[in-house]
């Protein structure tokens, strides 16, 4: 009898809790998505980004910058 009580009332393992959480989220129509991105703290990544930015032609970026400024909220100075 004590064994049944312990089985029913013991905490679930971390893997079981994660599985239950995923099932609850799926029931709500959600799906887990994992994304790997470059680590901006890495010196190599920062050098690579700096090289790419240096290669940009400002005249080709004007439309994008105008759009970003139009949809961005800036504090009035």
Key terms:
77 residues, mainly alpha, 0% strand, elongated
Give your account of this protein's structure.
The protein is built from four helices and no strands. It is mainly alpha-helical. It has a domain at 39-77. The model has no long low-confidence stretch (mean pLDDT 85).
Task: Summarize the helices and strands and which ones pair or pack.
Layout: H1 2-9, H2 14-27, H3 43-54, H4 58-71
The counted number of beta strands is 0
Distance between the termini: 72 Å
Arithmetic mean of pLDDT: 85
- How would a textbook summarize the main sheet? none
Radius of gyration: 25 Å
Shape verdict: elongated
Taken as a percent bin, the fraction of beta residues is under 5%
Structural class: mainly alpha
Number of helical runs?
A: 4
The helical percent reads 55-70%
What is the N-to-C succession of helices and strands?
HHHH
Low-confidence stretches: none
